[in-house]
Amino acid sequence: MAKPIREAHREFISVIDSVREFERWFFNLKRRFKIPPKEFDRIYLASNEAFINALIHGNKLDPERKVLVDLKEFKRSYRVDVKDQGGGFEPEQVPDPRKEENLLKESGRGLLIIREVADEVKFYREKFGMRIKIKIKKRSGARKLSRPIANGGATAG
User: Which residues form the Histidine kinase/HSP90-like ATPase domain (predicted)?
Assistant: First the structure.
């Protein structure tokens, strides 16, 4: 695997106040890494969902347990790893929140959101917890055209 351009690591105590701490840390990383707004929105949304899931469902808000978060920037993508110290779960067993019987349930949308905004999502059950790896491809910036635009891009007016 390629070496990251930049990376940041942080450990959070599993208490509800850590959500605000996570948010402040992540927004500081936006400035430090100079992440474009559209890319940041996707990275933050997926990471925040994974973090809250790890905090609440994985670690059950047990202050003795930690959530570890890594953000790495590569040439063509960002990767976020979120690891809890809980008992783990089977991602394919999580009910689809779009099904009629699940529409009014208070939880269950986080994994769907992560899968929708990320380019790649992988789950790993580890000895002491669960790890989710989220990959977001870089999309901002001008794209080179494979062929010239007719009339030099001019429009009739």
Answer: 17-134
